[in-house]
């Protein structure tokens, strides 16, 4: 069910994004920015992915304003590494353990 909902949200985002940008071969790089948002929010959590996307968007905007130009694209992955070190399950992810 999560895959279906994420496909519907991605389709809606594509429909809303298409009129504002030209379609070219570099459109796949937008998906590379969705991965840090999903990890930040926690896999399997739709509200977490939305909050993670908002946080990543704000961080990229602030990084583009305050840091040198090259850091805007790298800021999301720096936050991704920090979240993986501090809280590997994400902000809204559940901590699960496997007993052997």
Key terms:
100 residues, mainly alpha, 4 helices, 66% helix, flat
Layout of secondary structure:
Elements: H1 2-17, H2 29-41, H3 46-66, H4 71-86
Encode the helix/strand succession as letters. Answer: HHHH
Global mean pLDDT: 83
Structural class: mainly alpha
Count helical runs. Answer: 4
Total count of strands: 0
The proportion of residues forming helix, as a percent range, comes to 55-70%
Gap between N and C termini: 29 Å
Major sheet characteristics: none
The dominant shape is flat
Q: What's the gyration radius in Å?
A: 15 Å
The quaternary structure here is single chain
**Strand coverage percent:** under 5%
**Spans with pLDDT under 50 lasting ≥5 residues?**
none
What does this structure look like?
With 100 residues, the chain is mainly alpha-helical. It has a domain at 29-92. It has helices spanning 2-17, 29-41, 46-66, 71-86.
Quick structural summary:
The chain is mainly alpha-helical and 100 residues long. The protein is built from 4 helices and no strands. It has a domain of 64 residues.
